[in-house]
């Protein structure tokens, strides 16, 4: 029993010794940290911010005749400031820091207080005001999705007093414009792009369409009947100006008529005789024509066609079928053309003044040479 108690006593003493050592180590470590902190605080307290004079503007670019008020700080009354200019032929400065520009050139505005000094650089030029603006184009035509950049040229060329300017569109659903003057055609119609700079305003008319007249304008009036050749359908390409069910040119002329007149997008349409007629047509194909109507009213529309069998077509105005199905009689051959003008009631269409889209729709295959519009 005595031996067991001695062992417990020894274990207890060892534990007490270990606890005592850890406590002493912890106190020692905390003491070192406290000393380091106090030393660091002393170092921080010893640091000072160098004195300086601060001015509300440090780099001036002014026109001759302009003035600007400079302010030096601190402004708590602990310092007195003196102002001067190292080039009084360019700029002068009052005792309270008011700078007046009197000539072109460079100068330093100097502010002092005791041994402290700060320089403010100044560049002075003679004001050349904006007198006018010239826009590179006053009106443009664009296809939907196309872009065009217009240039604004300032007059005189060496103008240096340039007001704030902006570009805007009167109808963004037709055309938009960015800050560089790049116009993007969005939807059909006519709108104006506006350029404003100071009190000057300039407008650019923008006419946006999916198609444009080929060899136009095609003008309808009461003065005389107008014959519109089938091969002169609009510019604009497949899906816009025409629909052809195949991409090949069965006429063997590789679209030479259209190509020779600046159209590279219509070779799928089979044009014979260098613009004489459109052939190799199929049901569902169509051709679109833009016309300008001078005299509103009723017009009789006649179609010059040929087919060694029977066929049919209809005419649409602004995407509306206005004639219903019109039969094409057997003319006796692909080159035997006749005018289809009946039934007259169906082929009489009412057109208001202005621009219209006329679509010739092939309900059956036949050769098509022209349309004739006669004011009633």
Q: Would you give an account of this structure?
A:
The chain is mainly beta. It is built from three helices and 32 strands. The strands form nine sheets. Strands 19, 21, 24, 26, 27, 28 and 31 form a seven-stranded mixed β-sheet that branches. Strands 20, 25, 29, 30 and 32 form a five-stranded antiparallel β-sheet that branches. A hairpin with a 4-residue loop joins β22 and β23. The protein is rod-shaped and about 115 Å long.
Residue ranges: pLDDT <50 for 5 or more in a row? 1-15, 18-23, 34-39, 41-45
Total strands:
32
**Largest beta-sheet details:** 7 strands, mixed
Shape: rod-shaped
Share in helix: 10-25%
The proportion of strand residues reads: 35-45%
Distance between the termini: 141 Å
Rg value = 44 Å
On the 0-100 scale, what is the average pLDDT? 89
Count of helical stretches: 3
Q: Which structural class do you get from the secondary structure elements?
A: mainly beta
């Amino acid at each position: 029993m005595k031996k067991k108690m001695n062992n417990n006593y020894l274990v207890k003493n060892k534990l007490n010794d270990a606890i005592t050592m850890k406590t002493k180590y912890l106190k020692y470590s905390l003491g070192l940290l406290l000393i380091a902190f106090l030393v660091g605080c002393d170092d921080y307290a010893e640091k000072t911010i160098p004195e300086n004079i601060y001015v509300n503007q440090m780099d001036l670019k002014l026109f001759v005749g302009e003035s600007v008020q400079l302010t030096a700080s601190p402004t708590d009354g602990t310092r007195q400031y003196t102002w001067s200019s190292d080039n009084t032929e360019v700029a002068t400065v009052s005792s309270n820091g008011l700078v007046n520009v009197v000539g072109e050139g460079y100068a330093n505005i100097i502010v002092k207080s005791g041994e402290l000094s700060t320089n403010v650089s100044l560049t002075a030029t003679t004001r050349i005001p904006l007198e006018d603006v010239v826009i590179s184009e006053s009106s443009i035509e664009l296809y939907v999705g196309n872009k065009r950049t217009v240039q604004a040229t300032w007059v005189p060329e060496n103008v240096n007093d340039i007001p704030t300017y902006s570009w805007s569109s009167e109808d963004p659903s037709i055309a938009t414009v960015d800050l560089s003057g790049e116009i993007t055609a969005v939807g059909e119609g006519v709108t104006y792009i506006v350029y404003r700079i100071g009190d000057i305003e300039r407008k650019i008319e923008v006419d946006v369409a999916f198609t444009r007249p080929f060899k136009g304008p095609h003008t309808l009036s009461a003065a005389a009947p107008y014959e519109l050749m089938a091969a002169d359908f609009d510019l604009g390409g497949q899906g816009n100006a025409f629909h052809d069910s195949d991409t090949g040119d069965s006429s063997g002329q590789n679209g030479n008529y259209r190509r020779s007149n600046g159209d590279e997008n219509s070779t799928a349409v089979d044009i014979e005789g260098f613009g004489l007629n459109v052939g190799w047509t199929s049901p569902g194909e169509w051709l679109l024509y833009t016309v300008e109507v001078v005299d509103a009213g009723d017009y009789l529309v006649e179609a010059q066609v040929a087919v060694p069998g029977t066929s049919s077509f209809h005419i649409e105005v602004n995407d509306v079928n206005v004639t219903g199905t019109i039969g094409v009689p057997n003319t006796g051959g692909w080159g035997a053309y006749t005018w289809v003008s009946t039934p007259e009631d169906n082929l009489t269409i009412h057109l208001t003044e202005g621009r219209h889209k006329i679509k010739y729709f092939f309900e059956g295959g036949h050769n098509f040479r022209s349309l004739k519009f006669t004011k009633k």
